[in-house]
Amino acid sequence: MEDQHPSANNTRDTECKISITEGEGEGEDHHQYFDGRRIHRVPHLMRFNKEDYYAPKMVSFGPHYHGLPELRMAEELKRKVLGDFVPNGCKESFYIRINEVIDQIRNCYIGVSRDAYNDRTLAEMILLDASFAIYLMKISAGDFKKYYHFCQHLGRALLKFAFQDLCLLDNQIPLWVIKLFTNLIYGNEEKGPMLISEFLSYYALQSDLPISITGEDKKQPLHLVAALHQLLVKLDSEGEKPSSYCLPNINFKFKCRWWPWKKENPYELWLHDPQPRPVTDLKAKGIHFKRSSYDLKNIKFKSNKFYGELQLPVWHVDAPSNQLHAQLIAYEALKESNVGMPIICYVNFLKSLIVKSEDVKELREKKILINGFDNDEQVVEVIKGINTWGLDDTTNIDDVRVCIEKHCSSKAKTWIAELINTYFRSPWTFTALVGANLLLCLTFLQTYYTMNLPK
């Protein structure tokens, strides 16, 4: 990674990589950027009395919160950051290039008229916001020079708010603008996607894993929240949607329709009359827990002869992730997003699994829940407090729920689980069981010989 250590002689970010003159880009196809997708705001019902979740605290990106007095301090820093990226002699050239695609940028937003922002004003806003987004991404990627620069101007405490504001659904600029601006600065088309990928991996997964931000349809996400959603609900490594192991390949619901003598469809019975079972109850029924992946759709259930195994994706629980989940839920609630409700589905499923601190402890010990709070009780309260607004789509976990209910309804499997849980959960209970059986055997032998030995 370049620029990771401060240096007094390092002027890479202040060099003008390309010289652009007016009319130079006239032959290019600038309509390639806007493909009809638009940046929609959080639904009004969700914003009502919940503005704290969706309004920026420190910095605005895009026109929706631009110009608020409480965000003025960040606006001053934006100009310094743009000056570090683009020397004064090159700024006009950058404005010209952005102005060539200003209609494409304007079309990405709803209600951003020329009366509110003329082309020059909107271009200046987007340049400042794109440069500041790149600035924050480079800090997250380990650029200590820019980290110290931020702390010097705004203080270290505000950095976490800047990262959170960058990932608010109501506070977005198109990703292609960030990549275009990165290309103008560095003259490298790979720099923008690489920087965005590193930021997403750090912010959502807290790791340095290389990730792709291209969807199945080869389209890039429109903005950062869409990219984060795509990252958290991507397909598994084999390119197939995760499915349950306990049902046959033929659809179980379809098979049941061919049993006319059955008065009840067992699939329908289990599916529409689900029993909320927390983690501790499932464990008592012989179900073990295992982490699957970071993909929130990757929920599987394996049914073995004497026990079951529920595989769950990793879930980070802390203050920043709680706000991020609120943005992703709002994104899924948009009728225009067309991404389904996998995160809403998983949150609702998690709420049924976690009702007390013992449930959190079990999932935490299995490395499924990553707890960023001081104790497990806080995690219970946070998960209970995640609002899914009454929305749900259980398509992704229908088979899993059926398999769990089928396992819990098996007398043999649950009896063996209860036996193991009662007598084999610790060396002391096992020792007591062996001692009791030994005593019983000795008593039987004593009785037998007393009755059969000759007198």
From TrEMBL:
Membrane-spanning intervals of the chain: 428-449
Entries under InterPro entries matching the protein: DUF247_pln
Keyword Transmembrane helix: yes
Pfam families, sorted: DUF247
Alphabetized UniProt keyword annotations: Membrane, Transmembrane, Transmembrane helix
PANTHER family with a match to the protein in the record: BNAA09G04570D PROTEIN, BNAC04G53230D PROTEIN
Name this protein carries in UniProt: Uncharacterized protein
Species of provenance: Olea europaea subsp. europaea
